[in-house]
Amino acid sequence: MKQLIFYLGVLISVSILVGFVCFFSLNPSVFKEINNLPVGVYNVDQIELSIIPKCIYLITGFLTIIYASLALVQYRHILLKLGALAILVTGLIWMSFGLISVDPNSESDYGSVILRSYLIVLFILTAKIILLVHVYNIGRGLIYKTLTAILIGIDFLFLFITMFSPSISWTFINIILLIYFFWLAFEGYFLSKPLTGT
Q1: What are the residue ranges of helices labelled H in the chain?
Q2: What whole-number distance in Å separates Cα of residue 128 and Cα of residue 132?
Q3: How many separate domains does the chain show?
Q4: Residue 186 lies inside a defined structural domain of this protein
Q5: Measured between alpha carbons, how far is 32 from 36 in angstroms, rounded to an integer?
């Protein structure tokens, strides 16, 4: 089952990459606005081919929920379970972007996307920190510890820049979100190895 978690992580990464590359390639005008919009806002009926981001949100959100659910069942250590629970919440929030369409003329719809974008970043940071603490406790996984610590530092830096430099807008938050889904494959790979204190 540990291998399945890793394969799900890879599938999530591939889905995100292929989906957004296709969407932005077919909609270059939308890509030009990526600095001004959170990545969770593309479920808009008025955007051409909005079915693509809707599917990205639903498929990757669903896969993330399965990934986290399997981790909750598989792992016994309390920190791993808490990390998996945080990942589960990110999957639910990400999936909500596909379930709830955005009316571009509605401030409340846009406000909801902003709130969920910050919430998902909060749970991403929570998951990474909890799982990093677990790995430090077992004293193994130098590459994992180093990369995850660097990513946490980058996440905090990008979040800080975004909060205090409005001109930067959504670019860094979008990077945090997209890198996270690639990190899930790395996380799954590490946890599929023996002697990881699971």
Answers
A1: 2-26, 28-31, 51-74, 78-99, 107-138, 142-164, 171-192
A2: 6
A3: 1
A4: yes
A5: 9
Q: Hey, what are 83's tokens?
A: 């990390």
Query: Nearest CA to 42 among 25, 33, 169?
Result: 33
What's the token pair of residue 36?
């001004």
Kindly state whether residue 18 falls inside one of the protein's structural domains: yes
Q: What range does the domain containing 123 cover?
A: 2-23+41-192
d(CA 198, CA 34): 39
pTM over 0.70: yes
| Structure tokens belonging to residue 102 | 């955005």
- Domain assignment present for residue 34? The answer is no
Q: What is the distance between the alpha carbons of residues 42 and 160, in angstroms, rounded to a whole number?
A: 24
Q: Is residue 54 part of a domain?
A: yes
pLDDT values of the chain reduced to their tens digit, one per residue, 198 residues: 678 888 999 999 999 999 888 888 888 877 777 777 788 878 776 777 778 888 999 999 999 999 999 999 988 889 889 999 999 999 999 999 999 888 777 788 888 888 898 899 999 999 999 988 888 777 667 888 888 889 899 988 888 887 777 666 788 888 888 899 999 998 888 877 765 555
Please state, in angstroms and rounded to a whole number, the distance separating the CA atoms of residues 195 and 198.
8
